[in-house]
Amino acid sequence: MFGWVRQGFQRAYERMLRREIGDGPTHVAIIQDGNRRYAREQGDDAPDGHRAGAQTTERVLEWCEELGIEELTLYAFSTENFDRPDHEREPLFDLFESKLYEFAKAERVHESEVAIRAIGEVDMLPDRVQEAIDFAESETAEYDNFTLNIALAYGGRAELLGAARDVCRAVESGTLAPEDVDVDAVESRLSRQHVRDVDLIIRTGGDERTSNFLPWHANGNEAAVYFCAPYWPEFSRIDFLRGIRTYESREKSWQRTRTERAVALVRAVAEVELADAKAVAGRLRQQLPSSGAAEVSEELAKRSDESAD
After folding, report:
1. Which residues act catalytically here (predicted)?
2. d(CA 279, CA 301)
């Protein structure tokens, strides 16, 4: 009885969230946290939690397609994760390997024209994972309808340091002039694959931090951030829609702020111009006959009324 009521409420709430969402973000990045904690609470081992999380990943891909999102980046394995014990790392590498091959062969991936890409220091990964990455990327290289970035052996600080070193080497060798070091020069050296600016970061598992994730693409774009309590295997469509709503609320607020600033700037400029015009008119009054001065005053009053409007 109560289960049926709860399901009905969830469906109604989901429909309400969907109605509140407009165009939505272009690029969503997700920190998939809580797999191991989920497994512990279920009385399972860490690899079981990661396998459950992989099922959530497949569902999120479907939700992105439904909402017209064009790019999804998943934080699957950080450079810090190499510090985990072998009995946790190896099953993860097995999972990455099998899922990459599975995704690359899936009919849905090819029907939807999904480009699978890996970002991060992939040369740190085991050979078998690197081979799976090469296979997935080559099988989907021609697609551009949707992009799935998988962050493997990824660290935002390391990414920025690598780009800075590449820029320094290019300047030192003479292939890049110092005055040509700009946003494009840095961005082209950030990742082995092109990544567009991030609009929304979602983190599951309850922690409220972005963990060194895509600092250039997210912070530089002032991405919205949505933190939620469910572990990644428990992450639901309602949670995802809440994240999208957070992005849209932030975007509307930012647009409203920009409009208010633009209006204030126009008014400030108009006030300065009006003050200058009054000063000029004052000087003209001293030099023109009384009839000419009256015409200047009339024109000035007319422009003052227009500025007020």
Report:
1. 33, 81
2. 13
CATH number for the domain whose boundaries are 2-258? 3.40.1180.10
Look up residue 122 and give its DSSP letter: G
User: What is the SS3 assignment for 17?
Assistant: helix
Where would I find the beta strands (DSSP E) of 79-155?
114-119, 146-154
Tens of pLDDT, residue by residue over 71-130, are 999 999 999 999 999 988 999 999 999 999 999 999 999 999 999 999 999 999 999 999
Question: Is 59 marked as a binding-site residue?
Answer: no
Pair 121, 79: CB distance under 8 Å: yes
Residue 37 labelled as part of a binding site: yes
Catalytic residue among 44, 81, 166, 212: 81
168: closest CA among 189, 184, 183? 189
How many Cβ atoms sit within 10 Å of the Cβ of residue 230? Answer: 17
**79 assigned binding-site residue:** yes
Do residues 245 and 17 lie in contact, with contact meaning Cβ atoms separated by under 8 Å?
yes
| Residue 140 labelled as part of a binding site | no
Q: CA 233 to CA 300: how far, in whole Å?
A: 69
Give yes or no: 184 in active site: no
Q: Is 145 a catalytic residue?
A: no
